[in-house]
Amino acid sequence: LPANPTTAFSIRGDRGLAEKRRRTMPLNELIPMVNQLQEAFAPLGIPPIDLPQIAVVGSQSSGKSSVLESLVGYDFLPRGTGICTRRPLVLQLLNENVDQDYAQFAHISRRIYSFDDVKKTIQAETDRVAGNTKGVSPDPIILRVHSKNVVNLTLVDLPGLTKVPVGDQPQNISDVIRSMVLDIISRPNCIILAVTPANGDLANSDGLQIAREVDPQGQRTIGVLTKLDLMDAGTDAREILEGKVYPLYHGYVAVVNRSQKDIDTSKSMKSALMAEKEFFATNSNYSHLAQRQGTLYLSKKLNSILEDHIRSCMPDISHRVKVMLRDAQSELVQYGDDDTATEQQQRAIVLNSITRFCQNFREYMQGNCRHKDQSILYGPARLRHIFTVEFRQHVNTLESRDALSDEDIHTVRRNAVGVHADLFVPNAAFETLVKQLILQLEEPAAACVRTVSEELKQLLRDVLEISKEIGRFEELRERVWRECMSLLSERTRATGEFVQNIINMEVAYINTDNPEFEKIRTGVYRLMAAHQSMPPKEGGASDSTHNITPSKPTPSKSQDESSSLREGPAGVLVRDQWKPHYIRVSTKQLDVCVTKQDTAPIRHVPLEGCSFKVVDGDDGKTNCIEISLPRRSFFATSETVSLGFSSADEARSWITALNKARDSGGGGGGGVFFFFFFFFKNRGGK
Fold this sequence. Notes:
By secondary structure, the protein is α/β, with parallel strands linked by helices. The chain has helices at residues 15-24, 30-41, 64-72, 115-130, 173-185, 206-214, 238-241, 260-264, 269-282, 295-335, 343-365, 380-396, 400-403, 406-417, 427-438, 442-466, 468-471, 474-508, 515-518, 521-532, 559-562, 648-663, 669-681, and strands spanning 53-57, 89-95, 102-105, 141-147, 153-157, 190-197, 221-226, 252-254, 566-574, 577-586, 589-593, 603-606, 611-616, 623-629, 639-645.
């Protein structure tokens, strides 16, 4: 570490020289060294190392500014009503043998010899960042004062605690200031200088109260009492200074600052210090404590406390600085030497960075990288889940009844023949209905493409985050991200068009010559023929746009038509065991009840599109009827209902009743949907 306070830290400096200087560094150079670290870490906002410092806290008008000006010896802080300190002011006092005292700001390289200009600069810089509406900002102002009349000391002047917003201040100004103060004084290496006016109740001191929250034992708190000369007659602060009211480890120091009248009459700091010394020496309440009171004693005490505190923290600070230097040097080596790198070497660095990014993406897609949250699917596993589970579930939710009703089927059939009489079922009607069902696949397919695209986008973002090689170059990182997003967008659009073309091809030609379709052709014709004789509903579609004569009302079903075609006891195979039940066969439906007296069946079995056959039971005695239910979607599995009877004749008679129930009445859209998906699957299952 450099011994000269004006010497900047060099990341490539001689380690041996720095170690030698650290061992031989005098105490009066500890504070300037910490000042350099403080300036180096200032742009980071939150310093990576908890540096020793003294923070000045207190309520508004408690005398904080007057204490700091007495320590410096100049009137340099903005004054006025309301909040004067609206940004943290890091005040670095440097004891140097200079011909004329001067100040320097960290953001201004030139020296300022007029402290009136220092005041104006602080005000202008505060307004620039915090605005001119009495707002506050945590961005600090760093001010160095070089003088032979000060001791080496660093103080952080924080905004005064307030309770009521004034002017254009936000309503939560009290909470904002309090949070800012707590953020600094809660650091373990921060010494708290709590300023309290002596003419108020110590129990109501805002400075001591907030210090007690983070330092309940008072181990790192110093109390400063101001305005002793303004206390009521007959009262004094002797018990407080003696530590009998609220003791602190570092005790209390009383000061007497200039009054507002002294400031208005431009009373010099030297005269103010002499008046302060005379006050403690002549006041009978404080004469026995005069040697340990006053501004001069406070400055020496703060210097001693801060240097001792820095010395105790130095081993940890030194270790952490070394670690940071080592890490920075390792990172610097990866960047290469800009002075000697040729254009070819720079291209190689960029190419290697991009290659490593591609390797990381390939490893992610192969499942070699583990996501930080193992409770969720990620990367390629998530992509597989989208294809095999989410897309399948979306397709399974499709229902023909949602897209086609009996009235829709009847209307399409009549539109297919136009003004002609429909003696036969037209193929155009069937193809029109099937095409409408095929188009239902558009939304699930498009949703699948969008979901996969979003998952790949997140995957690329994560891979880019872990690729440290490419992350070193911000512009290259942004360029790679834009190229990846452009490529992903282009391929997403192309994939969507490809999927749409597949659906369009299926819609363009309905292949009814497929051998598998031959097996269900009869059922399709029977279903369409059932709609051929179906009259239009009241207000439904008709053969022409305008009815010349009113249509006749559709007669309601008779009692005999609405009753069951057959009912009786039967066995039902439930989990490989025969259970006695009572079944009723009605139009298009089989109802399964537990007993004959049950009016509400435990299951409805739609018979539309079903097939029936008689088989022998597993026990060799029961004659079974297997009812094969149609599959309702592309991915659904076949389902079979088994009914058991005592004789083969009884089973055959029940099959007759089932066929009659299935073929009676009008067919529904669900049958068409079944025929389409059965046929569609055997064409390749695209």
